[in-house]
Amino acid sequence: MAVLSATIALAWIWVASTPALALSLREGLATATAPSPPHADAIVVLGGGKLPVSDWSRTTTRAGRGLTLWRDGLAPVLLVSGSDQADELARGFALSGVPDVDLRVEGSSVNTHENARNSAVILKADGLSDVLLVTSAIHMRRAAGSFRHEGIAVTPVAADDGHARLVDAPAWLPRRDALTLTARCLREYLALWVYHRRGWI
């Protein structure tokens, strides 16, 4: 029995580490970004992503996408949300030229449900109801659903999640980054189920 269990575990780790499985799971979650995002009332950037180390506008991270949208004049307000990174994002945007009057900081939320609920309070207080939402592609489905549940209209703008290189990798050869993506996707599917059960989306 121990040998069988070990064999099954090894087989699962092998399959879970393949780009074929990881990308298939990602495909079920990823939300496409509009080729030309429309103008909106505000841009909302969720924390949790990798922060740029140089010129933020030259990156496709969450921070970089948000800054580019603001510089392109697609919305006058830039809101950052999440207790993990809101303050750092706000400082980075300020150093990148975003004036305080255009920044909103929501720094108390610890999960996506609270991101949406707390951000919606700030947005509605300013009469804003239509946002460009910036987060990772696999997180977008849950994030957008959470914001819409709070009465906010959402246009998804997905940040680069860094997994494009898996597309060109051998489909059935295990890779560490594929295993990481598989784990993230499975966690996201579970979170979606929980959010549906709790009525948060």
Helix-strand blueprint:
Layout lengths: L1 H15 L2 H9 L14 E5 L15 H10 L5 E5 L4 H10 L7 E4 L5 H14 L4 E7 H13 L3 E7 L16 H23 L3
Parallel strand pairs: 1-2, 1-4, 2-3, 4-5
From the structure above, extract its key features:
201 residues
What does this structure look like?
This protein has helices at residues 2-16, 19-27, 62-71, 86-95, 112-125, 137-149, 176-198, and strands at residues 42-46, 77-81, 103-106, 130-136, 153-159. It is of the alpha/beta class and 201 residues long. α6 (137-149) links the parallel β4 (130-136) and β5. The protein starts with a helix and ends with a helix.
Helix content: 40-55%
Give the beta-strand count.
Answer: 5
Major sheet summary line: 5 strands, parallel
CA radius of gyration is 18 Å
Decide which structural class fits the backbone: alpha/beta
Provide the succession of SSEs. Answer: HHEHEHEHEHEH
General shape: globular
Mean of the pLDDT scores?
91
Summarize the structure.
This protein is of the alpha/beta class. The chain contains seven helices and five strands; from the N terminus they run ααβαβαβαβαβα.
